[in-house]
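Hi R.,

Here's the chain you asked about this morning:
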Amino acid sequence: MNKLDNSKFIEKLDRSNMLKFISDLPGQCPDAYRIGISAGINKPAVKINNIVFAGVGGSGIGAELIKVYLEDELKIPVLICRNYTLPDFVNENTLLFCSSYSGATEETLSCFEHGLRRKAYIITIGAGGKLKEVSLKNNAVHILIPSGYPPRTAIGYMSITVLGVLAKLGLIKDKENDVKELYSILSDIRDKEAGFNVPLEKNISKQIAFKLYKRYPVIYGTADTTEAVGNRWREQIAENGKALSSSNVLPEMNHNEIVGWKFPEKLLKDFKVIMLSDKDDHKRTKERIRISVEIIKKSKAEVIALKRDKGGKLARIFSLMYIGDFASFYLAILNNIDPTPVETIDYLKKELAKI
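And the predicted structure, written out as tokens:
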């Protein structure tokens, strides 16, 4: 029996039960939407001219996924801030989401303070901690989500909750049906395509993990559809699989990175390309994907093309993400390592706390 179908082997490595957290993602989505749309929020007294998301890690990628999903519906600009300071345009006409699962993320807390000074309409999202404390102290809306998750596994709560909030504020249409569809499709992926109980020969995520094992993954997404998914794959491969990868986006990479598929010749054959696309990609981007794959294959690198056609845009985006989440877990198992601990991040925080 191979490692990825061996429950006893996985249980010994997966001491913090990462597999269960990933498997439970479908259930997060309807709960997150309920939390968001039932939050005690009043519509701002002034017109909202822009939306800013302040968050890093899982909070930042959750915002990216929502931004992509709402690209064709929101009529105001959206910016994601992964830094300590907000852009100068933030003012009383800004809807500012400050998200930190732990409530202790220093970049997000800094942006919260900046938002207060700029008189932005602030909504904070997290499982408690200092972010909740400063929110309540300053009469900002704090939306409390369930605790007990490794932050990267709370992606449903850190993203779908925002949809509920935006719908309640009247900035987007109600998304209950889209979220129901999302729950159904993600559940099917877990139960029929990618979850542990699906054997290797039928499991897309296990098969991808074997292809990525001891190789360097290069992930390409497409603008306005799968770019955020590509970033999520890279982050999950790092945090769960403890492995490096890179991500980029078409058509941008056609104007620079595509030239680099020549050297170093001896290493390129060990690269594995994940090409993430969507049926809503621009027709010229679809042609660019085809030609790019031809160019990359000349370097002897294998290209794994992934696209999901089932469901609306929200379901398709999250489906590609979910396949990657499982693949990153299985990659950790192949690497003989517990996927949950992020010791390097813990060390960074400890060292920063001394300064």
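The mean pLDDT is 97.

Let me know if you need anything else.
M.
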